[in-house]
Design a protein that fits this description.
Keywords: ATP-binding, Nucleotide-binding, Transport. This is ABC transporter ATP-binding protein. The chain has 10 helices and 14 strands. The chain starts with a strand and ends with a helix. Helix 3 crosses helix 4. The protein is of the alpha/beta class. The strands form 3 sheets. Strands 6-7-8-3-9-10 form a 6-stranded mixed sheet, with helices on both faces. The relative contact order is 0.14. Bound molecules: adenosine-5'-triphosphate (ATP). The site of adenosine-5'-triphosphate (ATP) has 11 residues, from helix 1.
Length: 294
């Protein structure tokens, strides 16, 4: 397990990270989400040792990260970092060798990644001549070339079309199945919703929520219900224990106080006319994010 424990960092007089702590567990995809400037890239740079924390530490299997462990991390930096004039294949070859892999192993890994990431036709072209989406795939191949033990990926899905997202997801899932912990940042909450096992939400340099996706979705709000009636559902406003979340004519989403009874609300709705739909709803990740990252 990769662990950040009380990591703080300031730039000048600006505190950018406030005692950031979270775990990235083996075999799980951990989505790291937050608005622009929330502190995701800074946290990842600290994991990689590109930046030093002012306080706190990063550990792997309980030990403070060493250079040797960091060499076993596959990192996709925000600023990217492939050589524009070098071909994808040469680049992978160079990076693999730099990480100490033998010629055959590098070649095998490179061909597999090129194929899996559908880069075959472009693998001989200089990176600068590839579309942005293909450059992004090449970046992912570069992060994976040395069969890393840990993956730290800064916005790996930005600029990818939905099919490419699926391709990359498959490749990453394969790594988690082998037990690799994967930390990835993303602005695309729909992708995170689909992909992550665990979620870390950061806002203003503070962790606002962290844990299993299902757990967060289930536990982060009061029980929520959706009701659809024939007329206007505005009367819900005056129902005891009901807190309206959204009202759109005949359709309402509301939260219920812990001591309130959902069947009483249903009975109240039926006493006013037909009820078309009634039931509990789970908040989406986007809703949780808006709630906790305010
Ligand atoms: N080298 C630096 N010097 C000064 N301030 C910095 C530096 N690096 C980052 N910051 C500031 O730290 C804060 C956090 O930035 P960071 O890049 O970690 O956020 P982020 O969550 O990755 O955002 P984004 O999604 O926009 O990439 C920002 O306010 C940023 O301006």
């Amino acid at each position: 397990m990769l662990r950040l424990d009380g990591v703080s960092r300031r730039f000048g007089d600006r505190q950018v990270l406030h005692e950031v702590s979270f775990d990235v567990t083996a075999g799980r995809m951990t989505g790291f989400v937050g608005a622009n400037g929330a502190g995701k890239t800074t946290s990842m740079r600290i994991i990689m040792g590109v930046l030093a924390p002012d306080a706190g530490e990063v550990t792997w299997q309980g030990e403070r990260l060493t250079r040797a462990v960091r060499r076993r991390i596959g990192y996709m930096p925000e600023e990217r970092g492939l050589y524009p004039k070098m071909s994808v294949r040469d680049q992978l070859d160079y990076l693999g060798r730099l990480h100490g892999l033998g010629r055959d192993a590098v070649r095998r890994n490179a061909e597999e990644l090129i194929e899996r990431l559908s880069l075959g036709e472009r693998a001989g072209d200089p990176v600068e001549q590839l579309s942005l989406g293909n450059q992004q795939r090449a970046q992912i191949a570069a992060a994976l070339i040395h069969d890393p033990d840990i993956l730290v990926l800064d916005e790996p899905f930005s600029g990818l079309d939905p099919i490419a997202v699926d391709t990359v997801v498959d490749v990453l899932r394969e790594r988690t199945r082998r037990g690799v912990p994967v930390l990835f940042s993303s602005h695309q909450l729909d992708v995170v919703e689909r992909l992550c096992d665990d979620l870390v939400i950061i806002a203003g340099g503070r962790i606002r929520a962290a844990g299993g996706r299902a757990e967060l979705r289930a536990g982060h709000a009061l029980p929520r219900y959706a009701l659809t009636v024939d007329g206007d559902a505005g009367w819900l406003r005056d129902e005891p224990g009901v807190q309206l979340v959204d009202l759109d004519g005949a359709h309402a989403v509301f939260e219920l106080a812990p001591d309130a009874d959902d069947q009483r609300v249903l009975a109240a709705a039926l006493s006013r006319g037909p009820v078309r739909a009634f039931g509990p709803v789970t908040p989406s990740l986007a809703e949780i994010f808006r709630e906790v990252a305010r």
